[in-house]
Amino acid sequence: MLTISTFNIQNDYFKYSKEKTDIIYKYLRKNDIDILGLQEVYRTLDRDLNDYLCMKNYNCVGGYRLHFRYLFKRFNEKNPIITKKNIISYKTYYLPFLPSITKRILTKVEIEDKNRIISIYNTHLEVRNLFVKKRQLKRILKIISKDKNPIILMGDFNLKTNKELFLDFISKLELLNIKHIDILDKTLKSSKYHRAIDHIFISEDFTLLEKKIVKDIPISDHYPVIIKVKDKH
In which element (H, E) is residue 30 found? Predict the structure, then answer.
């Protein structure tokens, strides 16, 4: 069984304290999470997370939006994947972003579990511009379509399931035997609607056992999503 979570931890750069790192670690341990995808991780938090989690035998990998990590520290985020599983490789893909000014990325990690390789993807898409979102989703589909491993895709897509663009993306992933996990509640705390914008997809290699939104984490404007899956292999 694998426990998987996606969590936009909110870029609170100017309010950051190391307590946030401790809360993330406690969240990992309390829920026995095998794979955690984070979004909006800025350099200070990333540094502390790496120092803290390495002592606890976790790996925290992924690249930044900008190649030069010390530039624009407030906005140069990453979408790391945290796991105790054996990491075979990882890569950062740069998604289309113009005419938006904010670069967006897709983090890929290959892990070894039960003697086979699983591909984990984590992303955070454009907030407002639908044209840019469409190009980003198209790029993600192109990358995933070439992947022969079992797949887990997660992240903050900034899209609800009532949006035609996202429904089309779900349909195209289903053609690749990758299904969307329906989360029937909001994941952005301020939302007026009970629809998620943080999502997880799993390939047909997995059976869904459990899904939930965690609402007792105070460090973000998002709620984390957790699923438990069983490998059919």
Answer: helix 19-30
Measured CA to CA, the distance from residue 81 to residue 35 in angstroms comes to 7
- Write down how long the chain is: 233
Into which CATH architecture does domain 2-231 fall? 4-Layer Sandwich (3.60)
Amino acid letter, residue 20: K
What is the spatial distance between Cα 50 and Cα 181, in angstroms, rounded to a whole number?
A: 29
Helices within 40-199 (DSSP H only): 43-54, 130-145, 164-174
Exposed / middle / buried, residue 10 (Cβ in 10 Å: 0-12, 13-18, 19+): middle
Summarize pLDDT for 177-226 with one digit per residue, the tens: 999 999 889 999 988 888 999 999 999 999 999 999 999 999 999 999 99
